[in-house]
Automatic annotation (TrEMBL):
It comes from Faecalispora sporosphaeroides. Keywords: Isomerase. The lineage of its organism: Bacteria, Bacillati, Bacillota, Clostridia, Eubacteriales. Signal peptide: none annotated. This is Sugar phosphate isomerase/epimerase. It comes from the Bacteria. InterPro entries: IolE/XylAMocC-like (IPR050312), Xyl_isomerase-like_sf (IPR036237), Xyl_isomerase-like_TIM-brl (IPR013022). Pfam families: AP_endonuc_2. One of its GO terms (molecular function) is isomerase activity.
Amino acid sequence: MKLGFISAILDQMSFEEMIDTAAGLGFSCVEVACWPRGKAERRYAGVSHIDVGALTDKEAGRILDYCKARRVEISSLAYYPNTMDGNPEKRAANIAHLKQVIAASHRLGVNLVTTFVGRDQTKTVEENLELFQEIWPPIVQEAEALGVRIAIENCPMLFGPDQWPGGQNLASTPAIWRKLFQIIPSPNFGLNYDPSHFVWQMMDYIAPLYEFKNRIFHVHFKDIKLLPDRLREVGTMAYPLEYMVPKLPGLGDVDWGNYVSALTDIGYNGYACIEIEDKAFEGSREGVLNSLKISKRYMEQFVI
């Protein structure tokens, strides 16, 4: 496996500074954030280390040369929007940009995009499956034509009142994955597997690795710490951030030895990117860099 991180945490850096940081810290790869230029709608979003809308062949060549010189690979181009937003204008804009990310991934020879399928948070699962069947086959067909794979992260995107009641990403459980893969059986449509989201949903994050081994294109290393005292007070029907907090790998409840062991069982040898969302390390450049150093040092017990 190749150890890297999601570039969104280095939002104040240029592409070159971000790659230099990755190289200086000894990372093998980076999942490069490619949101549209402009204001972020939520934390850890809105970061644009590659402007896919303005990417020319010349600029793509320069980017690849810069990475090669520093021995840092691009694991994927990352854009996590809601492509099934209940607002038709937002939905259309998100889909249009996702298609630009797909085209840019092809132009760069990366040929992998990490994203969400989205969800209309006001509709039922069944209604959203119908919406998925309408929206997503053309997106995947476009990716197939370019030889690009799409890896869907399993985060429910349900954390607080603004995402209530259904959350903003349908692809959050194995039961739903089976339905999505029935609708789109394409080998170019798979998973960006993050165990932390199963922890707060009280789910098994090991068994699905074996069932979906051929669908796992990319993995995340992020941890979640459950707060039992809070959970007893508010229950699982509360806003999830009332009873859990994102943490650096090793500072939460994921059994990383068991997780990586299962990845080696299924023969996964692709990209594994640390995702930093631990507020304890925000607020300063030093804190952010320390979060990457600590996470890398911990995960190198299992992945080098």
